[in-house]
Amino acid sequence: MTDIDDDPRRMLDRLLTEKGVDYAQLSARIGRNPAYIQQYIKRGSPRRLGEQDRARIAAYLGVSEALLGGPALRVAAPTPRARGRDLVLVPKLAIGASAGPGAPSIRAGCAIWAPTRAR
Fold first, then answer.
1. How distant, in Å, are the alpha carbons of 38, 58, 96, 110, 112 from that of 46?
2. Quick one: pLDDT at residue 4?
3. Residue-level pLDDT at 106
4. DSSP 3-state assignment of 7?
5. How many percent of the chain have pLDDT more than 70?
6. Is 112 exposed, middle or buried (0-12, 13-18, 19+ CB in 10 A)?
7. What is the predicted pLDDT for the residue at 22?
8. Cβ of 58: how many Cβ atoms within 10 Å?
9. What 3-state DSSP class applies to 112?
10. What is the pLDDT of residues 60-95, one digit of tens each?
11. Residue 105 to residues 79, 100, 111, 114, 116: CA-CA distances in angstroms?
12. Domains and CATH numbers, the chain
């Protein structure tokens, strides 16, 4: 028997039960037909949730995508209630970039741009 934490379907089923969300409601929330989540959990189809579906579900439930079979590094934030239809969640990434001469220097946890050569 598989541990519940190792099975994304059983974990999703448990999370939905705990939060009082039914399958059709979640399916509609992610833009799928009303039977989509029920088929995923009960029939095993699709085999895995698509990346966008998994991200939306994790954000809606306020859990890590890893609980739903995703990569362990991505963490979803709860969806704001006052969000309009034309707004989307944009992940904040810890990256650095340079568009000209210069390279990022990391000091005390923040990026400071320093020229690579004197002119």
1. 11, 17, 37, 42, 46
2. 45
3. 55
4. coil
5. 62
6. exposed
7. 92
8. 24
9. strand
10. 998 888 888 888 765 555 555 555 667 666 777 777
11. 34, 14, 6, 7, 10
12. 4-68 (1.10.260.40)
Tokens of 107: 């000091």
Q: Which two tokens stand for residue 41?
A: 């959990």
| Cis amide prior to 46 (ω within 30 degrees) | yes
- The residue among 40, 30, 32, 37 whose CA lies nearest residue 79 is 30
Can you tell me which residue has the tokens 């999370």?
A: 15
* Residue 2, token pair as written in the block: 């598989």
| Average pLDDT, integer, range 48-68 | 90
Six-digit token string for 37? 């989540």
Q: Where are the alpha helices (DSSP H) in 1-118?
A: 8-19, 23-29, 36-38, 51-61
- The pLDDT assigned to 73 comes to 63
User: Per this entry, what is the length of the chain?
Assistant: 119
* DSSP code of residue 67: G
* Residue pair 15/25 in contact by the 8 Å Cβ criterion: no
d(CA 16, CA 18): 5
